[in-house]
Write a structure and sequence with these properties.
The chain is 66% helix and 1% strand. With 430 residues, it is mostly helical. It has 2 domains: 287 residues, no CATH class; 59 residues. Helix 3 runs antiparallel to helix 6, helix 3 runs parallel beside helix 10 and helix 6 packs parallel to helix 9. The longest helix is centred in the last third of the chain and has 67 residues. The protein is elongated and about 135 Å long.
Length: 430
């Protein structure tokens, strides 16, 4: 008996080979459970919210006349940076009442001029009426928060594998490092609100950076889901790739006046970290965006190619150990599939053996019931014939038809014959 449970050369059931028994029963033999249906529904809603967010960003970008809007915003930010900012640069820029900005002449013409930021923005006018349109960028934030923060909580509820989750957070150093860099990026953008001229736009960008932290964390931790959501993870991968690509390209080609302040304010902390603290916020953000993008690119490409498989967890083994483990795993899956098929065959054989016995017992019990019913009907007919009229009555004896007893016997015989024919037919089919 042990040999037939360990032999892999058997006729395997298509579609169920190599799959563990619990998974096979859940996926193929039983209906989809409520939890998996809820996970699928939440992922579909999150995908819809993410696509709606992208659509809103596109319509706002087109509706605001992007080129004119960005040029005006950079001009207003430069005027605020040069003339009205927290660190007013009177030694470098000369601001007039009519809004014109020019460089301060050097005391020694023979010496080279100091580096001046924003030479291309000095002659650009600032239209404050146009900057009020920045409130339109608030529209995509609710759908972004729903798709990146609120709905993923439903995905991980009773669906996260704890061992894989610990492996991601503790044994994969890139995951906490990427999340920390996203948090550091959000802190830098929060610090730009106080120095910005368009505080509404700066606040919206800071909130978007804060939302980006859980969105990146959800994308990385999706390896631990028992029931994966490939469509949602693919949308996350494309959204993050586009988001960081745009951030890297724009900060490499444009100068943002609000991000030209030092990373740390003047004080003992910046004196202690002079190299990092004296760098501008734009250069720090560009470095962080580039680092996050390079650390995420392998996982993003893996999700694009194989959205249903793990993209962050790495196997800690060499090539020989991996193939040995793979061969052993496939052999154990074949043995498990063989045991599953043989178990089903044994159950079917047991059912085929027990079903005729059960049918025979039911047939005997039904025959006995019919015989008892026929006997009771005959007794009733006999008692009705022997019933006499009470004494003192002038009426005659109640007449009973002569063929009543014979009719009851014929009906009982017909019922018995019908039962025997149906039982024989059922036995032949079994």
């Amino acid at each position: 008996m042990q040999t037939r449970y360990t032999r892999p050369d058997f006729e395997q059931t298509p579609g169920l080979v190599g799959v563990p028994r619990v998974v096979r029963v859940t996926e193929e033999l039983l209906p989809v459970d409520d939890h998996k249906t809820a996970t699928w529904l939440v992922s579909k809603i999150a995908v819809g919210m993410l696509l709606l967010t992208a659509l809103l960003y596109f319509f706002i970008y087109v509706g605001l006349d992007a080129t004119r809007y960005w040029d005006n915003q950079r001009a207003c930010e430069f005027q605020h940076f040069a003339c009205d900012g927290r660190l007013k640069r009177a030694w470098q820029y000369e601001c007039t009442d009519d809004g014109k900005i020019s460089l301060q002449p050097s005391a020694n013409p023979d010496l080279p001029q100091p580096f001046a930021f924003g030479e291309t923005l000095m002659d650009e006018p600032c239209d404050h009426e146009l900057t009020r349109a920045s409130f339109w960028w608030f529209l995509p934030l609710p759908t972004l928060i729903l798709s990146a923060v609120v709905l993923p909580l439903g995905l991980f509820r009773n669906n996260a594998h704890r061992t894989t989750l610990k492996k991601l957070l503790l044994w994969t150093p890139s995951v906490p490092l990427i999340i920390f860099q996203c948090f550091f990026r959000a802190c830098i953008l929060l610090s730009t609100i106080a120095d910005a001229d368009d505080k509404a736009y700066a606040s919206i960008m800071a909130v978007e950076a804060i939302v980006l932290v859980p969105q990146v964390a959800v994308f990385l931790l999706m390896d631990s889901l028992r029931h994966p959501t490939p469509q949602l993870r693919l949308c996350y991968a494309l959204a993050l790739l586009l988001r960081f690509f745009v951030a890297v390209v724009t900060r490499a080609t444009y100068e943002y006046p609000v991000e030209q302040y030092p990373l740390l304010p003047a004080g003992p902390v910046r004196d202690a970290f002079m190299g990092a603290g004296s760098a501008s916020k734009q250069s720090s953000l560009a470095s962080v965006d580039w680092t996050i993008m390079m650390m995420l690119i392998s996982s993003i490409l893996s999700v694009i190619n194989y959205p249903s498989e793990m993209a962050v967890v790495r196997l800690r083994c060499d090539t020989k150990g991996y193939f040995n483990w793979r061969d052993q795993y496939l052999a154990s899956m074949e043995v498990r599939a063989a045991r599953r098929d043989l178990d089903y065959a044994d159950h079917a054989l047991w059912l085929r053996a027990k079903l005729p016995i059960w049918l025979g017992r039911q047939r005997e019990s039904l025959r006995e019931g019919i015989e008892r019913m026929a006997a009771s009907m005959g007794g009733m007919v006999a008692r009705s014939q022997s019933r006499l009229v009470p004494r003192g009555s002038t009426t005659r004896r109640r007449a009973v038809p002569d063929g009543t007893d014979a009719q009851c016997q014929v009906q009982a015989a017909a019922a018995r014959t019908t039962f025997e024919h149906s039982s024989a037919h059922l036995s032949d089919r079994v």
